[in-house]
User: Fold ATP-binding cassette domain-containing protein from Candidatus Desulfatibia vada.
Amino acid sequence: MEKQKTIRVTNLSARYDEEVILDNISLDVFEGEILVILGGSGCGKSTLLKHMVGLSEPFSGQVYIDNVDITSCNDEDFRSTLRKIGVLFQGSALFGSMTIAENVALPITEYSTLSKDSINNLVRMKLCMVDLAGYENYLPSELSGGMKKRAGLARALALNPKILFLDEPTAGLDPVMSAEVDELIVKLNKSIGTTIVIVTHELDSIFSVAQRVIMLDKHTKGIIAQGDPLYLKEHSQNRLVRQFFNPSAKS
Assistant:
């Protein structure tokens, strides 16, 4: 059976003032897969992610989530579609004056009418999923970098999203913490079948989690390669792709 397309990006172009960041990008994300968007600095990875989650309006083109065009739909459909996604921002974006439990509860309080007890139970369950049981009353400042990432993941999972978007989930972490976050991402994908879209340039993470990659290039403003990362590393005929996957190799 052919996998369903959970996300479709069609002829998307993005600009900041007069600068073209992305030019005529088209891609599909399939249900249940882990897709990594990669490329060098300044290639538009995070810009593409922001458009895919509805945080930025494209210069042209469309983004469909479950066949709803979030670039042109009405407010009700947009809000309904946003409930299907969870986002982990690069810095985790936890509110420093709130406990971990309060941070995770935020989207549940905003988008549901559950009782306080039900919300508390749901928060504990989400924290258990990311191995942070018992840390409900801690402040973000009391957690390590890796634990903050996991707390951010718990909040992203709060509404049982169909799709997770993760922006540089291992950035700034040491190798051990990075490996733990990568392992958690794979576990979540396997256990609950969540479609996951990740932006990263970390090679170790790419090979640990990616089922498929899409590589952007800042010069062409578009996609220059896509497929299995190991295959691209070994067999790509594109010089830029080879250099990205083999940074220590001579040209």
User: Anything to note?
Assistant: The chain has a mean pLDDT of 92. The chain has nine helices and ten strands. The radius of gyration is 18 Å.
